[in-house]
Amino acid sequence: MRIVAVDIGGTAIKSGLWNGEAIEQLKETDTFASEGGAALMIITPLLLPVARQLGINDYHFGLVAIVNIMIGGITPPFGSMMFTTCGITGCPISEFLKEVWPFIVSLLVVLLLLTFCPFLITCVPDLLYGAA
Any residues with CB less than 8 A from the CB of 130 and at least 6 apart, and which? Predict the structure, then answer.
């Protein structure tokens, strides 16, 4: 398969054949498939129609989904942000978790507020664009 140009993570693959070298280059950028982005790309088309049928505002659904994915990124077992941070800083995961738990608790409180008080999310768009 021929490609013209792909820019992923600041690395451009110029016109050429899609071969093993190109795939290795994508792997080196480490942005080929990030869990958060992939999760958002998978759940949005699947769950947005269901949310609309249940009368959930699109903004509300999107922000709750993003906050959920963010919490998943810093908590085990799939905490990609946690593993990246610990890998770069050399901090043991146990130490990281000891220091980050207040932030996780606060994020869970915010998630509960956003989930059960949709007005917090929709008030500004409703003021700017009118109620949907």
Answer: none
Distance CA 54, CA 75 (A): 29
90: left (phi over 0), alpha (psi -120 to 50) or beta: left
**DSSP string covering 105-122:** HHHHHHHHHHHH-THHHH
Query: Do residues 13 and 6 make contact, with C-beta atoms less than 8 angstroms apart?
Result: yes
Residue 56 burial (CB count, 10 A): 15
Strand positions, DSSP E, 70-112: none
Backbone torsions φ then ψ of 56, nearest 5 degrees: -85, 130
- Whole-number Å distance between alpha carbons of 69 and 36: 6
Check: pTM over 0.90? Answer yes or no: no
- 4-43 per-position pLDDT tens digit: 333 333 333 444 444 444 444 433 434 334 578 888 898 8
